[in-house]
Each structure stands twice: as C-alpha cells, then as structure tokens.
Amino acid sequence: MAIYIGDSADWKALRASAGDIRLHPIERFAGFLTRDSKGIVEDPTDLLRSQVSHDQKELHAWMPQSLGKAAVYQPTAPNNSASLLWGEHNGFQRRCSRGIIALPPKLWTVSPKLNSGLCGKAVCLAYGILARNKGLEPASLICNLKAKNSFRMWEEGSLFPLMSKTLRSFYYIEFRDSFRLLGDSFITAAAELAVLLTVVDHSLVRRWLDAGFEHQDLELNFEAHYLGASPEALDRLYRGHYVAMLISLCLYHKGVQIRPEITVFDAVCDLESVSIPLWALSDSMQARRDAELAQYGPSLRRLVHAAI
Questions:
Q1: Do 69 and 217 share a domain, yes or no?
Q2: Which domain of life is it from (predicted)?
Q3: Cα(22)–Cα(46) distance, rounded to whole angstroms?
C-alpha cells in the first residue's frame, strides 16, 4: 500500500475516491473534541485499503501525483510495510490514535487513578503518545534504564526531580499489564514517559508536544537516507527513538529545537559494536551532533549512557 502514499493533496484525492467508509468510534467522536481542527476524518489505513480494493476490481493501479512519499519513514520497497507520520501537517484532522482503546476501562474517567491511588492523567497521556509513535517493530526499541546503576545516572542528569523507584514501579506495573508482549524495554520506556509527564511542568510538556518531539525526527530520517544510510543504519536510528524521546523531555527547555537522535545513534552503534558509518560522519551530521550537545548540555551524554 506504500505505493499510494504521496502528499496531502494525494490524501485528499484518496479520500474523494474512497466513497463511504465506516468510521471507527474514535473518528466519529473526534469532531466533538477537536472542533478547531479541520481535515480528513478517516484513518489513513482505511483509505489505503479502500484504494487497494477499488484497484483490484478495476484492474488498474491509482498513482499519487507526488513521488515524495511525504511522511513515510525509511523508504520502503513495494509490498513492504511503511511507517507513516500522519496528522494535520498532511491533511488529517487532529485526533487520538485508535490505539487509545488500549487504555484500561478504569482510566476512562474525568479524574483517573491507578490502583495504587496515584493520579492517572499522565498515564492516559502516555498511552495516547505510545499509540501514535511506536512504529513497526516496537519490541526492538531500546531502553536500558533498569540496568545496574542506570537509574542513578539518569536521575542525576535530569533537569527535573524524578520519582523514587517505589513510585516509579507503580507506573511500570500499569504498563506491564498492557504491553507485556512488547518486552521489558518498551514497558520501561512507557513507565519513564509517564513519570516525566507527571513531574515536568505542564506548560513545558505542551511545548514539547507542539514541537513533535514524541515522534522520531522525520527530516533527519530522510536526510540520512539521502546521504546513503543503509536499512540497518536506519533501523538503528529507529531503535534509539524512545531514548531520544525520553531525553528530549527530561532535558527540555526553551532553547531545545531538535531531538538528540545522532548522539543516541552513536551510542546504539557502540552498543552493537558497529562502526559509525560514513554518512553519519558527514559535515551535516557532525553539525547536527554539535547542535544536540549545545542545546542539551553536558548532561546529554550522561543520560544517553544511562539509557543505552
């Protein structure tokens, strides 16, 4: 289905040709919650499936006008799965992912609480973020904060006072029940995201979300591909995605404009005993590396070491 992906104009064309699509409850109620957001209501996967079905009946393939594959991570071969960053920037209405239905029923209240009695609002927000940003292989995402001494380094490097291990464990238990099939690294990252969403000032969290820092850097992904990054290297960028997300929130302040993805990538290469590839040593990537260190400060490398 990746062959159908173009730009926002192509998505509108797909919607126009799709006819009636039965909306998921999330889409049906999205308009009541985001009245200021305009755009396509239907889920992109439904639009793609509808076009596939139509083309199979008509025995011809619809082609997008744009060849840019806008918002697709890691350029894909035909018939392979694609990871898509979709939203208002490419013509869709703002809303939660359908994955929000994974939220436990006990949290579907105005004032959600965990079984431990802790406020559950940060957990709800974390569920919404994780439903949108985990990509195609979430079980491969790296987060080694449970390794020996990692938490101490992480705590000492953070801009914000973090929770104790005991309180953190309540968040871990909450996500373990939902994400046990994705492995311990994913659960650990989910719990730490909820912790940070709890302790970081709400105005900073809002700015962090407005900057799109919960998502992998799509422009960097494209640039790496253009510079000759192999599929394996792009996979390493992806596998460091959650560590880059957590650090970007843990050290977030007004001067931060990029996620620390190249610094994390270097650490993933070191973890896997792989040499840093030539494209990552190019002038533009070195400039990115320098900018990450300048914006996040000396704590950046300490946090990367703790989490990778």
A1: no
A2: Eukaryota
A3: 9
* Domain tally, the chain: 2
**Residue 134 and residue 39 share a domain:** no
One domain, residues 2 and 73: yes
Cα pseudo-dihedral 254, 145, 190, 231, rounded to 10: 90
Do 127 and 262 lie in one domain? The reply is: yes
Tell me which of 71, 95, 119 is where a domain ends.
95
Mind listing the pLDDT tens digit for each residue in 71-125?
888 766 566 778 889 888 888 888 777 777 778 888 888 899 998 888 999 999 9
Residues facing residue 84 across a β-bridge: 72
Q: Enter the pTM of the model.
A: 0.91
Exposed (0-12), middle (13-18) or buried (19+): which is 169, by Cβ within 10 Å?
middle
Q: What is the pLDDT of residues 160-182, one digit of tens each?
A: 888 777 788 999 999 998 999 99
Environment class of 280 (CB within 10 Å of its CB; exposed 0-12, middle 13-18, buried 19+): buried
